[in-house]
Amino acid sequence: MPEIRVTPLGAGQDVGRSCILVSIAGKNVMLDCGMHMGFNDDRRFPDFSYITQNGRLTDFLDCVIISHFHLDHCGALPYFSEMVGYDGPIYMTHPTQAICPILLEDYRKIAVDKKGEANFFTSQMIKDCMKKVVAVHLHQTVQGDYNMTPDRHLGAAWIDKCRPNLLITESTYATTIRDSKRCRERDFLKKVHETVERGGKVLIPVFALGRAQELCILLETFWERMNLKVPIYFSTGLTEKANHYYKLFIPWTNQKIRKTFVQRNMFEFKHIKAFDRAFADNPGPMVVFATPGMLHAGQSLQIFRKWAGNEKNMVIMPGYCVQGTVGHKILSGQRKLEMEGRQVLEVKMQVEYMSFSAHADAKGIMQLVGQAEPESVLLVHGEAKKMEFLKQKIEQELRVSCYMPANGETVTLPTSPSIPVGISLGLLKREMAQGLLPDAKKPRLLHGTLIMKDSNFRLVSSEQALKELGLAEHQLRFTCRVHLHDTRKEQETALRVYSHLKSILKDHCVQHLPDGSVTVESILIQAAAPSEDPGTKVLLVSWTYQDEELGSFLTSLLKKGLPQAPS
Amino acid sequence: MDPGDDWLVESLRLYQDFYAFDLSGATRVLEWIDDKGVFVAGYESLKKNEILHLKLPLRLSVKENKGLFPERDFKVRHGGFSDRSIFDLKHVPHTRLLVTSGLPGCYLQVWQVAEDSDVIKAASTIAVHEKEESLWPRVAVFSTMAPGVLHGARLRSLQVVDLESRKTTYTSDVSDSEELSSLQVLDADTFAFCCASGRLGLVDTRQKWAPLENRSPGPGSGGERWCAEVGSWGQGPGPSIASLGSDGRLCLLDPRDLCHPVSSVQCPVSVPSPDPELLRVTWAPGLKSCLAISGFDGTVQVYDATSWDGTRSQVEPLFTHRGHIFLDGNGMDPAPLVTTHTWHPCRPRTLLSATNDASLHVWDWVDLRAPH
Predict the structure, then answer these.
(1) What are its cofactors (chain A) (predicted)?
(2) CATH 3.60.15.10 segments of chain A
(3) Closest partner residue to B20 among A175, A180, A396, by Cβ?
């Protein structure tokens, strides 16, 4: 029985370092190669020792597939390919291929420059790793972290009723019930509005891609409705990069964005203007979107330094910040920061951490699993103690088996793959000619010959098979002798046999042929008189092997003897 | 213009904070466990219902540095499944046990909230002697050294059962068949009951049945259904019992004289209530003389009863929560109906409200009378 074997190397009952080994039909595939953002030592990488014990990785693994560009799904890729040693193909979609190296390089810079890490992959390693990447097109839209509610940018995730043998899904957020998007947006608007109302400045550090454009559209709509005059600025660097990458994303985005983008070929706003560094010194309220997102360098850090000392101002961090960055420090509550030259910056401005993350919640995950209709479900990215209820829910509501292996633990799933076989038209026609119509509820036995050639399976009639294979047909018949006590002539015996069988076998075709023999379907019965004993007659019962059952039945019946003829 | 968007913009002024959630199933239950978690439970009759222990978003629990907590989501801390619909759920304080009541109403279910996993398991049942097809027993818990469960669908079937020994420690022992609409434990020996007719009573379990009560049903009785809640018990004089009728009448009573309400007002609500069993009136634990009512439509109304006396008849709410109507409906479905609401035990103006279309809101309203 062909099996699917799944072993998480990271993310098994654990959050972060997503990495799952799957063996299907003799092929070994690694799904994702992520980093655990919470650790600084080896625990941040998946446990590759499980596969590197004997032999080379490239020999063992057929390929690596990366679902999306978040660091907990691809962060360990350069380490894996360049430092542990893997030369095989790495598959990912075009947008992921474009964005991965940027995030990896950003992360590398922070780890090495800010945190002074030594044993880290280099820029060259990232480049070498990306050379092994083969970009592919996906039929499905869903990839990586998914969300079932329509995002302002991305459409809602959807999936075909593909009925896979196994669906692997994260469960971190399956125990979450998300606050509605509107309320989260409302919270953002309220904070921005309150700050500018009291004359303060709002800094929003953003990544080049992601939520920046969404938040801009939100503010633009609000500013328009409230007739606000406070300036909103957007770094130009952002727009250029964003345009380039959004061109790749367009098939994935929703109607509104597509319209805006396609009509003007860039994100143009009425109330939002391009930023100039000089504006940061202007008095009065304003809102500025600037990169980079973690306040670790560049424009956003410059602006932050200018505005941090005023408690009327606010900085809104829209995402996770890696350890070592200024973003991470202020989100940890630090109010005094040591900058270059031992300068201490006192942070009096309000610090707000707002989550705009894209994960689906309990409802979303159940919806997605329900849509795909898998045979089994496997949960990753969750703590065992906190997945028991979800496991029960999936098993009960969707009636599928649910597994949650730990790292290094293998789950084996038996599968029953269906093998397609073509039936020849001649064979089908012959069956139809027998008169009975096909009935889905009453399976009928069909006799044919299965011809397997290359990867082709065909079911044909025996005659056709013999012809194709150039073989002569042989017939197999069984003959049995039944001795009867009968003094009459063999012709009369045969007649008696005929009458007897005719009266008993009402469902079968019993015939008395001119030459004296009796046939029951294809079974032939002939009476003969042995020369030694005139009182005994011998019945020769002969049948083909296909009619064995009826043949045996007739033989036993005749052995019981014939009824007395009426005088 | 999307009315939802309009309301959202208006909400910036009306609410300090506002959260909206979609549960997998509607609930009629919102039961607190400490001040960081609530239980909700489904009440569908033909499928399995979920009981969930939800941990409030961190932002609502932390006192300082609220801005540093981005999480605005509920976390399902524990979950379980019930074959029956659940109309009432009570947590037994200082234990990991829950007691639920639903239809069919022939028994109460006791649940165990697991410590080493996230599962809520059915543990045992408490038999109910009065078995009726359509009535479910009301439940309240005496949280003494040996916790006792007070339950009953009618006055004559009221009893207290010791949870551990399962012995009956108190019965009403009357033949009165009046239907109960609410039960509330006030202290170690006292409980309050309210009948659907509006009849109220305070019972001391140390004595044979001899409640302090109003014999006559509430004013203007003509088939209305009533419910009631007792406010901070024994904290000084003044009305501490609120009684709400399905015709929109709200009466305030002093426990020392249940026969003569201190005030009786008419709330501006659409009457009659589409489902009088959903009527709910609650006292705000953190605001003096503030009440909330729900069950008439998709709103929750907050009233300040400070200056109510016998003379006032028409009143206006201090605040009306309309979020369920604007955010959840899409104009096509029938208007939502609030199934239950509750006040946050510590945050004075924060409430939770749930509707029959499975939405759950947490909202912190702004008192517009207060100076800025």
Answers:
(1) Zn(2+)
(2) 3-141+161-174+361-414
(3) A180
